[in-house]
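Re: the pair you flagged

First of the two:
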Amino acid sequence: MNTKVIIAAALTGAATVKEQNPAVPYTIEEFADEAARCLEAGAAMVHVHARTDEGVPTADIGRIQAIHDAIREKAPGIIVNLSSAVGAGASREDRIAQIVAVKPEMASLNTNTMNFSFIDRKSGMILYDGVFENTFTMLQDFGKAMEENRVKPEIECYDIGGLDNTLLIARQGFFSTPMNFNFVWGVAGGQRFRPDVFIAMVNALPTGANFTTCGVGLDQFPANIMSCLMGGHMRVGLEDNIRVPNGDLARGSWEQVEWAVRIAACQGRTPASPEEARQIMGIR
């Protein structure tokens, strides 16, 4: 098992807002400052959904480029991983156009069309109900566009079907190795964290692939502990969870990075530097 663990911080997502946690970044300066804090805390990568100054998710290429460049300037060396999901309502053309234009080192690649909703866990009441479109054609076309533009795909699997979908498309041979997978737990429409399912997904990975994990809300902490234990990597951040393990509001994604560093230390692992993470993930 590699003793180095890659810690990523997902800074905003498309839904978390300041009313839930004031540390969620909206402005270009806030994104850059938060990325710098995460780098200092031990993160090698940040995952970014761009926002307007008012907090609205945006596919505007100029805005995304400005956030990307500000992060690279304020947090030298950190890997910027842009979202190809953007947010609700973004067209498939807008979703891939910003990746091709900005050319980050890494970008998310989603693997299956699915319900994607917000449901109150206690009452079961539906707060938002939507469908997240990711057809086989999109998986193919987005994946090819990323590889052709030297953007390493981070392959997002919300269940084991997404992994199988990727393996089907991978027969075309355009994915560079190693492939990098992210297991996503706790989305309403995806799967809750279950250790036995986690093990099955790891066992289904292609030879030489890397895996990390993230979990929404209460799934964040146990999923990351298990990923680190099994030799994988960890994603934390306010996109996924606004709190720290004791239930307090996180002061920023950086505070969750500090938590991840402590979990790694308990297992004899140390955070990978950005350059070590590039080597592990095959970013060229």
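Second of the two:
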Amino acid sequence: MNVKREKLTTLSFFLSPMAVMVVLFYLVPLIMTVYISFTRMRNWNVSKYLTEFVGFYNYHRLLYMFQHDPTFKAVLLTTVVFVGITLIINVFGGLALALATFFIEDKPASAFRLLWLLPRMSPIAVYSLVWYYFFHGSEIGTLNSILMKLGVISQPIPWGQIVPWGAWSIIIFVNGLVGVSFGMIVFTSALNQIPKELVIAARVDGASSWQISRRILIPMIRWHLLYVLTWQFLSLLTTYPHLFLLVQWDLVNGDYGTTLALYVFNTAFGMGEQDQGLAAAAAVLLSVIGIIGGFVTLKVLKFERMMKRPRGDF
């Protein structure tokens, strides 16, 4: 009994700082968001609106917008397309880069990884500005300039204003390039922990790099695949900084460059009348989608099976 109590005390000691942070920076804001979603909060006028309860009025507004507002429908559709396609790129792109650099010499592999880390190390504004000029819809745009010099096009193309796929392609490309590096780091770390003897033995038996990857490496990093997939899904669902700049600079169409996360930010903090009640309701909806999506991801990847104690443990 004393041993169990000591373990519980030790566990509580190490977990308490994180528990406090979760409560202060996640649980409390979530409760406040849910509370505000039931009020008519506008323009951050706390004294006037914070105690003015309106029930599910803001949620009814979201439902009405979903049924009748094409702009809001575009926001939801953009969210699905952006999260779905970018998630695939981030996870499998990062896995492909990690596997590719696993089979080459250390020095060129390190240089290659560093190259892919540059977007993540760059400030958001600088990184977004690079792609703003690259995809700009006039002659100053790098892509337009190259294509015109090659004779492929005769006039500049406003890439970000071609809806929906022009706008979607840009926001997916810009965010996917950053996200791939995260998966690459996690998967590279996981692959480096696999005993080299397994790979050497497979090479001796005549296995190709693809066979080694498919039958040895990938099955041994299931935990990391689960982590990256879940993390990237939740991250993409709530990301908006790059999108905000690309839309504000008028590079991409505002309707098809705005996800639900960016819609929440613009509604609560944007120019003109700020509707925090509606933004909070949309944020609650976003949280519910994240919880359901994360739970489904864990179920599909059989998280509970990986959590079972191995048969040899006592």
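The CA atoms of residues 121 and 215 lie 34 Å apart.

-B.
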